Fold this protein.
Amino acid sequence: MVLVLFGPGFLIWFMAKTVRNEFKKLPYIGEHTYIKNDKGEIVDTVYYTVPKFELERLDGKKITNQSINNQFVVLSTIQNTCPDTCGIFLFHFVELFYKKLVKNQDNYSNVKIISILTDLDGNPVYNTTPKFLDELAEIKNEVKNIDGYSDDIWWIVKGDPKPLFNFKFKNTYFYDNPSTPDNYEVGSKAFINSLVLIDRKGHVRGFTGSRRDSDIRNFFDLLKILKKVEFDETHKR
């Protein structure tokens, strides 16, 4: 049960059970606040929203809640030890997610990837290594000639990851869950091995692992569901 709920395959399992050949709305993850009337009946729900945070891109630019206003956010961590030992399987992520995002900017121009630099225990790291910077340069060289490429799609940032990963799921804070090596996770905390999806209003809408190609493919499907909802809402007006 622990592996199902908190391992990399949780939302793969969830999607397999709930989404077949049609789009369905994703759940809102995190603690909800319920508004009740005089009779104690729930009349409205305030969904968990990402709290205030401040991060810094490698180029020195500050990233705050305002930076992601009205943007879909793909949240992960990244380590100086990538790609050798990394919470995210970097090759799969670049090939199966990042390049697709770059190639389809007409549809995904309001999607940002935020990868917070941490160590393998999830602690913030404020310095990059030459090897890590060389790896980023190689990734950039792979995609810079693709139509739609921009330096503003994927933000590698420094700062405290806890405000963004500390939402509650099944009565446990996501940030505190231990990793499960049997699920190919590295480090001591599960969150460094995860991809988290945040909608345009700052609500957490889903997560998967980031260590398997199937996880990353399914995460892209979660993003497509939110984009489909956005399309439907826009064309109802």
In short: The two ends are 43 Å apart (CA to CA).
